[in-house]
Amino acid sequence: MTAFDFSQALAPGLPPPAAKWTGFAKYNFIGGHNDSGLLPVEALVAAANAVLKREGATLATYGLDSGPQGYRPLREFLASKLERTAGIACTADEILIVSGSLQALDLVNGILLARGDTVIIEQDTYQGALTRLARLGVRAVGIPLDRDGMRMDALAAALAELKNRGVRPKYIYTVPTVQNPTGTILSEARRIELLRLAGEYGVAIFEDDCYSDLVWDGSRPPALYAMSRNGGVIHIGSFSKSIAPALRVGYIVAPWDVLSRMLPLKTDAGSGALEQMVLGEFCPAHFDAHQPALRRGLRKKLDTLMDALNEQFGTAAEFDDPKGGIFLWVKLPDVVDTQRLYGAALAAGVAVNPGVEWSTDAAHGKSRMRLCFANPSPEAIRAGVAALAEVCRREFGVPDRIANVQQRTRT
Predict the structure, then answer these.
(1) Are 198 and 172 in contact (CB under 8 A)?
(2) What is the pLDDT of residue 403?
(3) What architecture (CATH level 2) is domain 41-286?
(4) How far from 189 is each of 155, 195, 216, CA to CA, in Å?
(5) pLDDT score of 261
(6) DSSP readout, 65-84?
(7) CA proximity to 102, closest of 76, 77, 124, 130
(8) 23-39+290-396 maps to which CATH number?
(9) Which residues contact 398 (CB under 8 A, 6 or more apart)?
(10) Hey, where are the domains in the chain?
(11) Is the whole-model pTM more than 0.85?
């Protein structure tokens, strides 16, 4: 019997087919994976047992007797936590639990964007945000960053230029607290200026705060949502980096008149209930104690990665010491094309994210790469960087020799 040819029935405009997953690379520096050794497994097991014994019968109903916005004890924890850590004064009714921050992106885009719209976004930014905008046919205007985050002079110039052309952006998307991929933190003064500019030009702000729990010293500026006086900010966050990415639990903070427009688009009958119940039980007792240990472990891995890059690449690899998070944004000499390096490195068992996928400017991203240091062991980090340097030298002549012990002051 001839197999049915589904290719003739596929809808037009689909993205390219996915490759079959064959396991992680031996030295895996891609994705937003976390440190498996720092996962609070025993406490999560205890939380699961306790909450299921007490409330397991509510799994028989969609929404766990909490309604479509998600498990209420988890939303109540978030309201308390956001007020303590980010200065956000909200109630559980202003929080929507979603299936990770990716669904949050889809819901915000779903109520605000149409084909042909324009948004403002950081020049180096989250690939998931860029690919969604491209698929929607939305133009993304990139704003350069420096060590204090998005540059306000460049933002002001972009807003003025767009206004002169009769274009009002639908929103300004920013990851202000431990930016992805640069690891910068938008200063409080710049936050004030960002809010002022957004108000002057009548543009909403879309604040992605997924990494804000991973600031090394545990101290962060107030969220833009907390600082806003006109309510023109939508705030999203996630437990993927603070607890575990595979749980797929994120959240949106917005006024009810905004959330009420998102709920009809959230047609999944509710995000995973068991995950919400476990987090709702775990977090009030353990979240605050877990974060410092997680940050300490991640910081040690970052130090290992920066030391390994210094040893293997010398001054050929340029980077700033990020202020938190799980990524290092690395600039290699202009002769290096990290998209080409990606393929050659993967064949040698090293996976990296080429910078062009994380930038609105292909030329800017061409010689950059994003390295996730959270998941590999320290030994794998060192061995992986050594293997990457060998591939890079073979392909591009950079570095000119391996095990370059020339040291430089971290910036």
Answers:
(1) yes
(2) 54
(3) 3-Layer(aba) Sandwich (3.40)
(4) 14, 10, 20
(5) 98
(6) TS-TT--HHHHHHHHHHHHH
(7) 130
(8) 3.90.1150.10
(9) 313, 316, 332, 333, 335, 336, 392
(10) 23-39+290-396, 41-286
(11) yes
